[in-house]
Specification:
Elements: E1 11-13, E2 16-18, E3 25-29, E4 36-41, H1 45-61, H2 68-84, H3 86-97, H4 101-104, H5 110-125, E5 129-137, E6 140-150, E7 153-157, H6 163-177, E8 180-184, H7 190-203, E9 211-213, H8 223-227, E10 233-237, H9 240-251, E11 256-260, E12 265-269, H10 275-287, E13 297-303, H11 307-321, H12 339-354, E14 358-361, E15 377-380, H13 387-390, E16 397-403, H14 406-414, E17 418-419, E18 422-425, H15 429-438, E19 445-446, E20 461-462, E21 465-466, H16 471-476, E22 479-487
Parallel strand pairs: 7-8, 7-10, 8-9, 10-11, 12-13, 12-18, 13-16, 15-16, 18-19
Antiparallel strand pairs: 1-2, 3-4, 5-6, 6-22, 11-21, 14-15, 17-20
The protein binds nicotinamide-adenine-dinucleotide.
Amino acid sequence: MSTSPTITTEMLVDGKLVPADSGATFTTINPATEEVVGEVADGAVAELDRATEAARRAFDATSWSTDHAFRARCLRQLQTALEAHGDELRALTTAEVGAPRFLLSGPQFDAPVADIAYCADLLERYEWRRDLGEREAFGIQSRRWLLREAAGVVAAITPWNFPWQINIAKVAPALAAGCTVVLKPAPDTPACATALGRIVAEETDIPAGVLNIFTSSDQAIGAQLSRDPRVDVVSFTGSTATGRKVMVDSAETLKKVFLELGGKSAFVALDDADLGTLAMLAGIAGVTHAGQGCALTTRVLVPRAKYDEAAEQIAAVMSGVGCGDPNDEATMCGPVISARQRDRVEGYLRLAEEEGGRFATGGGRPDRDKGFWIEPTLVVGLDNSARVAREEIFGPVLTLIAHDGDEDALRIANDSPYGLSGAVLSADNDRAWAFAEKVRTGTMSVNGGVWYGGDVPFGGYKQSGLGREMGELGFEEYLEAKTVAEPAQPATQATEPAQPATHTTEPATGAAGRN
Ligand code: NAD
């Protein structure tokens, strides 16, 4: 495949596509083949500082945050441009992320790009100014208003597993809200982000400084953003361990922190559930994108009496799916992202054996010369206290756990430091619903329902995060709330203040995309 039209070595800083000051680059590689996909600018502290300064200036000194119509137009322009480059960008994503092609028509590309329109529509219909009515306080009858305003400069720090999904799920609502952004993608998948930067610079009117995209091989350079007093919001997706550091680093300047973190979600089969359906749903969820999804259900809870039968059926589905070339339309389980990630997953497989577990299928590497692969693996013989049942593995590995009825299943499902997602299966929909309502988690699937969508809030309870991404709640993460009161007018004279500016004039700095 040719990826050259979409790969640039450059970052987007203050409206310009720029290399690192030092000229340094780092390599992004194809995890299925270990071939070089591209060379990307290896930015350092000085360039990140300039990106942050540009975002601050664009927020403070232009009309971006108040010009709703212009923002909606820019977002629609961006969506159209990304769609026009769809074939190149999907190919790039398969090459850089190892993402199976079937996911590209969903969350790996098409769905988040389509959801940019949701953000544009939302900003146009959103109630930016709400009348809270009249009330007397301290002897003064007042009319109160709630104004929603852009929160400011957003640092968006993202992981490698779904780069378009996660980059867009932060950038689009933040821009819709009127914020300006510094996006720092994971070093494993920088080219998807620089491709976005090139399109923003060359094919949209998004003004200079409004969206900056900074790449670096330095995993921890994002800490500079968490500490920077010019940043108002850190919107972070990644591991719970890094999320803790982001929170600590942000504490000094008391900035708003929004965290989407890890998960160890439970797929629960109640005693009337059909095991064939369970095997298909849970087995496939476990191997999709080689298990590199934070919301995948990696603990499977089944009635003790049906444990062996469930193990056999889930193992059959997982081994039937196997691993495959991500370019093949039929592939569901591609490679893991890197040698580092493969080693990490293999460490958990050894641990499972040390803890007394066995593999009903998988447990090793498939026979391939190149790339980073792990066989779809079902761990059996352990309970919920095992580390492989408690810690996030981020590979195609499921742990099968026995339960002794609904109450026990609920106890086990909730016995986790995480609370990101979950699923329940029962022949009785009401019973499944009653179960779902008691699980302490941010998303639940009842009898195979799919909650994913740009209009649906996503996020975690407990150590899976703070706040919600996507949907109206996700948009509101990028807003501040201001309450204004004025002396009440007699009823006949009361007039509603004008809505915020929606003029279509260009912002003060003009469009920078052509720089
Ligand atoms: P990670 O935490 O290692 O890195 C995430 C991002 O943070 C990267 O851009 C990284 O460079 C940056 N980073 C690293 N140290 C930092 C620091 N001290 N300060 C600021 N930024 C720093 O995660 P990863 O390995 O890239 O991704 C996998 C993890 O992401 C998994 O735990 C997965 O569950 C989680 N994830 C969560 C969601 C969700 O929505 N809840 C979605 C996808 C992935």
